[in-house]
Fold this sequence. Notes:
The complex is a heterodimer.
Chain A: H1 8-29, H2 37-57, H3 65-89
Helix pairs in contact in A: 1-2
Chain B: H1 2-12, H2 24-59, H3 61-68, H4 73-98, H5 102-132, H6 148-184, H7 194-218
Helix pairs in contact in B: 2-3, 2-6, 2-7, 3-6, 4-5, 4-7, 5-6, 6-7
Amino acid sequence: xxxxxxxxxxxxxxxxxxxxxxxxxxxxxxxxxxxxxxxxxxxxxxxxxxxxxxxxxxxxxxxxxxxxxxxxxxxxxxxxxxxxxxxxxxxxxxxxxxxx
Amino acid sequence: xxxxxxxxxxxxxxxxxxxxxxxxxxxxxxxxxxxxxxxxxxxxxxxxxxxxxxxxxxxxxxxxxxxxxxxxxxxxxxxxxxxxxxxxxxxxxxxxxxxxxxxxxxxxxxxxxxxxxxxxxxxxxxxxxxxxxxxxxxxxxxxxxxxxxxxxxxxxxxxxxxxxxxxxxxxxxxxxxxxxxxxxxxxxxxxxxxxxxxxxxxxxxxxxxxxxxxxxxxxxxxx
Lengths: 100, 223
């Protein structure tokens, strides 16, 4: 918005944090955490980075509540798409199907 | 006479304010919400590809990890840093516009474009290597091992998703070119710099897509 100016210091701090998280995610990829844990950790770091970019670089933090609703709705539909699809594919092996 | 009335009010309004808005703040809010609606469609567009990726990776986990090993981790990591840096220069350009520093604004926009071009250049190097290694899906795909077909599927996702991402980068660089031109001609002021912010939103969104692509494509099965 035209009125709110964020200090450049905050941008530099967010930038350094993003670089640190990038190094972290590369480092952790070389450690075997077992099972799905590697993917879960990598995605958690990615979500954290995306949140930093949205809140500070995209100024969502200082945006109107209506903007928050718009952003939230977007990720809600994405969550629906992913969770409903994967709840099918990840549970197929639970039921033994012998013939179609 | 409505025409006369309209002309009178127009003369009191800022030049950048379109006639159908009450004030600059309302106009800016409308632009931001409109851009976010567009970005929501982009989230769902990339979301479809991410969902497809999730389905096939859950089925062919071993082959996807094997395919990931053939990607260049060094170039991918450098590109991640390049893209994050371009997000910083983009937000610094918005800041320069807010405080009315035209030269800094033009400089940061050019720097953002330059980093975008470095990203695309490194991507081209990566693509060239994949062509040389016969890892591009299609009739030229050559891969030894029991998972050849599934590895080809991984590379289909790799080229589809990074290709779409690269296309967005190219469009972003085009938009930045227009902004540099406008900024150079002094079309922005601390009162009106909405186009800089809107293109900034787009640029950061493309950065976020890469933030997810990088670990999903380059970092699986590295341990």
